[in-house]
Amino acid sequence: MLRARIAGTGRATPDKVLTNDDLSKMVATSDEWINERTGIRERRILEEGRTTSDLASLAGRRACETAEIDPREVDCIIVATISPDMPMPAVAVTVQQKLGITGQCPAFDVSAACAGFIYGMSIADSFVKCGRYKRVLVIGVEILSRLVDWTDRNTCVLFGDGAGAALLVPHEGEDRGILSTHLFADGSGVPYLNIPGGGSAEPTTLKTVEAKRHLVKMQGKPVFTHAVKNISAAAKTALEANGKTPADVDWVVAHQANLRILEGVAERCGLPIEKFYLNIHKYGNTSSASIPIALDEAAREGKVKPGDLVLMAALGAGLSWGSALVRF
Ligand code: ACO
C-alpha cells in the first residue's frame, strides 16, 4: 500500500523571548493569571526586519536536512499561515525562492488558522498518495506578534511566533506513514475569532487602522468550548476510522493553544495527559506552526520515534479543525 510518510521535520523559532513578567509591564496581567489560565510562561517574538518567509524557509530547510533531501528536489510547497509576508502573493512562492527551488514546483498557501498544518498535511498526503508529487514540503508558520493588539490583554498574552515543517515522501508498506486525515469547518464560528479589517468586507482605510480592525479579535470562551469539543471529536474520529483505541496511541501532538484545552481533550478522549507532547509553556500559541514545532521537538528529543503512532488534532479560527493519525 502506498502512503505518504514524514521523512523529516524541522523548526525555526525566534531568539527573542517575551516572558509573562515582561507582559505584565505592558498590560494589566500577571504571570500567575496567564500560567493558571493557559499554561503559557513565555513566547518567542520575531525581531524587526525578519519576515514569515525567513522563518518558514529555515524550518523547511531543516526538514529537508533531516530527510537528507536537497531542497531543490522538493516538487511542491504548501505553507499554512494566516500571517504571510504580504496579502499577495502566497508566501509559499517566496519560500520557494529562499530555498533556491526553481522550475516546476507549485507553491501555495493554505488558510485554516490553527488547523492550517493539518489541512496542509491532508492536501500533501493526497498529492503523494495519488502519485502527483513525491517530495512535498508542508510548513506551518505564524508571525502573530505583528497581528495582535499589544494593548489588549485578552489576546496579546496568548500568541507567539514560530515555524515548523515536515517533508512528505511516498512509502510502500503498512509500517510507516499517514494513516488518515479528517478535516472539518463551521463558518458560524467566524465572529469568535477573526481579523475584521483589510479584506473586501472592510478595506483598509485610515479609519479601520485607527480602530485596530487589522488586528486579531477574539471571544475566548466560545473558542475554548468549541476547541475542547471539536478537537476531542476529531481525535476520536481518527482513532475509530483506523480501528485504534487510546491505548494504541504513543503520542498526541495536538495544537498548543491552551493547556486547559488539552487537559479537557485528554479527559474526553480517555487519553492520559502524559501522552501529550507539551511545549506551550515555551512558545505560547503559534497557530499553524504549533503542531510541526512540537513534532520536531518531540522527534529530536527522542520522544516520538520511528514507528510510533502519533495522533494530531487542532482547531482554529473559522471555525476550522481536523485530525491526523500518523505512523511516524
Ligand atoms: N490578565 C488578567 N486578566 C485577564 C487577562 C489577562 N491576560 N485576559 C483577560 N482577563 C480578564 C478578563 O478581562 C475578564 O475580566 P472580567 O471578568 O472582569 O471581565 C476575566 O479575566 C476573564 O476571566 P475568565 O473568565 O476566568 O477567563 P477564561 O477562563 O475564559 O480564560 C482565555 C480566558 C485564556 C482567553 C480562555 O477563554 C481561552 O484560552 N480561550 C481559548 C482562546 C484561544 O485559545 N485562542 C487562540 C486561537 S484559537 C485556538 O488556538 C484554539
Explain what the structure shows.
This protein is of the alpha/beta class. The protein is 33% helix and 23% strand. Strands 1-7-6-4-5 form a five-stranded mixed beta sheet, sandwiched between helices. Helix 3 (52-67) crosses helix 4 (91-98) and helix 8 runs parallel beside helix 9 (259-269). The radius of gyration is 19 Å and the shape is globular. The two termini are 16 Å apart. The mean pLDDT is 97.
Blueprint of the fold:
Elements: E1 2-12, E2 17-19, H1 20-24, H2 31-38, E3 42-44, H3 52-67, E4 76-80, H4 91-98, E5 107-110, H5 116-129, E6 136-143, H6 153-156, E7 161-172, E8 177-185, E9 193-194, H7 206-210, E10 217-218, H8 220-241, E11 251-252, H9 259-269, H10 280-283, H11 290-300, E12 309-316, E13 320-327
Parallel strand pairs: 4-5, 4-6, 11-12
Antiparallel strand pairs: 1-7, 2-3, 6-7, 8-13, 9-10, 12-13
The structure holds acetyl coenzyme *A (ACO).
